[in-house]
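Q: Protein A?
A:
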Amino acid sequence: MSFYDFLIIPDSLTANQFENFLYFSHRQIRTYLFVKIIRKFNMQYPKKVVIGDITVRDGFQHEEKFIPTEAKVWVLEQMILSGVKHLEVTNFGNPKGMPQFKDADELFKQIRASKKVKDLLDDVMLTAVTIRERAIERAIEAKKEGYGPDRILLMVSTSESHQIKNSGLTLKEYWKMAEEWIPKAKEVGIKINGTVSTIWGCPIEGPTRLEDAITFTKRWFDIGANDVEHADHDGSASPDRVYRYFSMLLDSVDNPHKQIAHFHTTRGWGLANVLSALQAGMTNFESTLGGIGGQPANFVDGVPVAGTGDYYYNDPNDVGLVSTEDMAVMMDEMGIETNLDIDCILQVGKIVEKIVGRRLRSKTVNQGRIPKSMTGRK
């Protein structure tokens, strides 16, 4: 057996292989060990992922002008035509405090009736946020009427103070509410997303425990959730802690495909966090066109509104999620299959800038994809 044969054999050696190994020079042995170490620590990530887009709900909710219903429908249609299977449509919460969602019912009716995508909707998951009882009740009523959501989103925070600010209930009260209403929603065919927030820190309390988020994840599944979103809602997560958390999570659950990563990029770490999550083994992500989004606006069309209170951010105009365009392009360049028409998504991103009336945060919308001649990829 030659020295180079050792570079393609498994890490463990048989007795005969080890005896042959001893005859090699120290330099050859060092080369062997170096190659094995490089292979061991080479970047590992899934070869196929799911990217959901939540522009129309999470992205537009932070805008301080009402986005026309027709524009929202157009974005949903175009993203479906681009291959996106998971989309957040609206929030069934009280529109008095969040007027961006005053068209929630009409928006669902229009997208359900769209001739452009009607034949594709059976393979698409349309989600509505339903934080409290009345919102869940509205979703159930809409479902019974034939236009409602396929899936609703409920949310807990690992921080008690953030939970109260976001929902008006303590954690104990919220879990009790969720346990009561999840069966009612599932009875009419609505799937449930349970979201866990403040995993990597709370803008009110500060540091939080990663272990609590793992416990909450398991509890969501115990009470009937179909999948769980793991959310960095204010951009507190750093790449090292993202890798640590998702490694812990995937070691603790038996359904990795039902775990969803949600990153904000308040401090510019968004795609670094996506990469860390990929390396930990995550395969399900969500994002917004142009990287927009954040807390529901507390000022809409020149009028102060409740929203969710004061903004957590020093500059509310410089926040948002990971950009759908940039994440899809990055993953494509890495050879990760997204099943998306990325060129189409980039075009939609350009139009979304016109819809909101300003340059957004996507770099690839502005700079384009890397020319194929430079990458050697077909």
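Q: Protein B?
A:
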Amino acid sequence: MLWAAVGHEEVETGNRMTRATMENGKAPVSAGLGSRIRAARRDAGMSQGQLAQALSTTQSAISLYEAGQRSVGIDMLLNVARILNRPLHYFLGEDGDMLYVKDSDIAELISELEKHPEDLPDLLAYWQFLRWRRTSTNGRH
């Protein structure tokens, strides 16, 4: 039989026993994974509802994944990675790891910057201008 620990309570789920350490009611892996899903979704400019629709699930399920209160199966995680254009290891990596997808616009930009590092100051100046323009357009500047 497989047992899974929930807090200090053990739940029978199969043919062996497993214990999980809980932090604030969430398994540490689920909490980190959930925050990465939220960050990638926001970076993609998607709402929870839009991501749910793309994954053929509910907004409530996405909310629970992001809160670390619901386990994400590997098939679902693969679909999340594909839809949000992130490599699978982004969701499983260390906090602060920012990885990019091969053959993406970001990968091409990095490749060009590696060939022409002298372009970096101009690129950063333009990026600052775009941020300023976005905030001034939104009435925050």
